[in-house]
């Protein structure tokens, strides 16, 4: 048995991250509940510092990530701050934030101790990055998981294209382009989660993790989730999203005769045309890469291109700032997005690549 810490409480706070140890476990709680625990740069640094402290601490055998409040683990990055920085300062602070965030995502994936993410409630964007790369991903009946970036003129990042690119068939392409939200069963199906535990049992699971190995603790609480929806939609999703271009994907969805497919086409036509084409290009390039680090390097290129684009600022304005839900994309149609526009998202930024895969 590992040595006990001399004091298992209270928690230390570092930049809206609560850190405490109890028994054999180290607990990290994202603590911005009014913002659904949206990540800031100081929070990313705090998480990384905790992982550094615990990596070689023999008293900590398991790391557990939770979110404060009842709404979710993490709604993503602080996109209002990203909007303001991109609009007013060219995105300099945002690029620095992404660099550290992506390094953290890679570290979580390679962490040498069990990293248990309790993905209860809303888990989107950056929230996926700090949870779905962990070695143990737990969802509940309240889980609502998405990579909704195309709706704000952005491209799935934080290793999202690595995860979605490896989902069965074209399910990941569907989720990446539409930004669709999925529940527990579909998270298990697509490989974004490993176990389902009822939300009411999370506290008991956390308590068991302080004294038991992870497998034993999970065995006490894991149950089967309610059925999902994606398994029954594989036929039209795989057929439509295998098309070589976004335009043809939309055509296939529209012509499929399947109501849900037509709804997906309508959804796509409301997203940023540039973000859709860039997302498809990045997702398909990610499938050919052999490591999460290489994909994060690729996503960093796309993110650096997006932060200097019109559509990212405009998309956040429409969805979060003014909330008029009426973004004015530029270019406004898929046909107007050129190959050169897309290539910019695959090109190293002026400041150079992130270099995680070196």
Shape category: globular
**Count of separate structural domains:** 2
Mean pLDDT equals 96
Low-confidence stretches are 1-7
State the name of the first-level CATH class of the largest domain: Alpha Beta
Count the DSSP helices. Answer: 16
How do the helices and strands follow one another from N- to C-terminus?
A: EEEHEEHHEEHEEHHHEHHHHHHHHH
CATH-level-2 architecture of the largest domain: Alpha-Beta Complex
Distance between the termini: 37 Å
Radius of gyration, in angstroms, nearest whole number? 20 Å
Mind explaining what this structure looks like?
The protein has 358 residues and is of the alpha/beta class. Helix content is 45%, strand content 11%. It folds into two domains: 190 residues, 2-enoyl-CoA Hydratase, Chain A, domain 1 (Alpha-Beta Complex), CATH 3.90.226; 128 residues, Alpha-Beta Complex (2-enoyl-CoA Hydratase, Chain A, domain 1). It has 16 helices and ten strands. The strands form two sheets. It has a seven-stranded mixed β-sheet, sandwiched between helices. β3, α1 and β4 form a beta-alpha-beta unit. It is globular. The N terminus is likely disordered. It is an enzyme of class 3 (hydrolase). It comes from Streptomyces roseolus. This is 3-hydroxyisobutyryl-CoA hydrolase.
